[in-house]
Amino acid sequence: MTQLEKIKQLVAAKADTTKRLASEIWEFAELSFEETKSAAVLIEALKAEGFTIDSGIADIPTAFTATWSNGTGKPVVGLLAEYDALASLSQVAGSPKQEPIIPGGAGHGCGHNLIGAGCFSAAVALKDYLTAENLDGTVIFFGCPAEEGAGSKQFIARAGYFNNVDFALTWHPSTTNAVGSRSSVAIMGANFTFDGISAHAGGSPHLGRSALDAVELMNVGCNYLREHMIDQARVHYAYSDAGGTAPNVVQSHAVIKYEVRAPKVSQVQELFTRVVDVAKGAALMTSTQMQYEVTMAFSDYVPNKALAAVVDECLQEAGAPEWTEADFETAAAFLRTYNRATLAGIRENLAELFGDDAVDELMQKPLHSGIIPFDPKENGYDSGSTDVGDVGYATPTVMFHVATACLGNVGHSWQNTAFSCSDIGMKGMLRAAEVLTLAALRTMERPEVLQKAKAELLRKNGGSYTCPLPEYVQPPIGRY
Questions:
Q1: Residue 400 near residue 316, CB atoms below 8 Å
Q2: Could you tell me if 333 and 242 lie in one domain?
Q3: Same domain, 231 and 136
Q4: Number of folded domains that form the chain
Q5: Terminal-residue alpha carbon distance, the chain
């Protein structure tokens, strides 16, 4: 029996438990830093498998580690699990018709329920394999909440939890099967609070100093800033507190949230400083007071190429999930829920990925059945951000993708919530668990790969992890 065949048996043996966990976490649909039930069911399941639990790590109540060791305990592998949901994406499981379970309720529109349960499956399979073969090693399941919010992995890394981890692996639900070659960008976010003086907007407006005016002037200033930043940078904002609903009262208090993205942490920090200067100028123009609180920051994610080569080998060996005709029909039904303009864009993207000749067939049977090879020469960036990047500055790290939704599916959508608790999503999750387990074992078996991966990390971080957040910034639980 091959190593992969043994792993498939181990994953299959706990498949019912894994799918139950994925379904329960999906049903809980808990937002960032509120994942008490989701963390609890994972902890209970891992404890039953003999893992030692350390709860509330890095001052985050819903963050935890689950650890199991054998023999010398070396090498040490970390598996990065997530389990937070997104607001306003409630949706009936597996249904290609928009029908929220709770109108306005939360939903797993990014499939983090599958990440958490898939990492559980891999952690247990890896433990069972090491036990059966009497091999040395330590498996650490990292329960990482709030990836969709302020993040947690950077706080966990700052607290030193990855210092003695030899390498870390994770995966993410996707529309394709690939070890992502591209990087993701760094991000920093803050709440900007303006305080002024209230007054009667009709009778004595000259006595008022409008915090809302300051916020709007900050937005204007940042809009002019956009012309003078690098093309890859992004600046986003959202009103958190507009100061009330009475137009005849000069608003004395207002809060706005800003997020800044750029390919590198240093670029983010420079651009964020300029955004702060704009806020100071807005306060000066309106005679208001401004304070800001940094609430989140992620480092850029860059895949460790030495590790990625091993993960790619394992993904190629395991192959894509095995789809049935019923799966293809379901996927096609979901694809038809998108409007004409979106479908046109999907066709263009598929042509770019797979060639013009393949598009018509893929639109009819829109599930990825192949593997996109890892490209070690790729140096481009996607414009999204993830706190996995911070783990990648603390220890060699790779994230790969497995199809759990139809080709062209839009992330953070009701469709994605439906896929995250469907047969298609579960198949992708179990395949991801197999690849995680195989990649962890292959890496543990090859000390030369670990040595190369750590040398690559040294060139990247200079010898130690530096958190992009100021030391005084604590997890913004209840404040993000």
A1: no
A2: no
A3: no
A4: 2
A5: 50
What's the average pLDDT block by block, 10 residues per block, for the chain (480 residues)? Answer: 97 98 98 98 98 98 98 98 98 98 98 98 98 98 97 98 98 98 96 98 97 98 97 96 96 98 95 98 98 95 98 98 98 98 97 97 98 95 94 98 98 98 98 99 98 98 95 89
Residue 471 maps to a domain: no
Residue 120 tokens read as 């559980």
Q: Is the pTM of this model over 0.90?
A: yes
Residue 471 burial by Cβ neighbours in a 10 Å radius (0-12, 13-18, 19+): exposed
The H-or-E segment that residue 298 falls in is strand 289-298
Q: How would you write 213-274 as a 3-class SS string?
A: HHHHHHHHHHHHHHHHCCCCCEEEEEEEECCCCCCCECCCEEEEEEEEEECCHHHHHHHHHH
Name the DSSP class of 355.
Answer: -
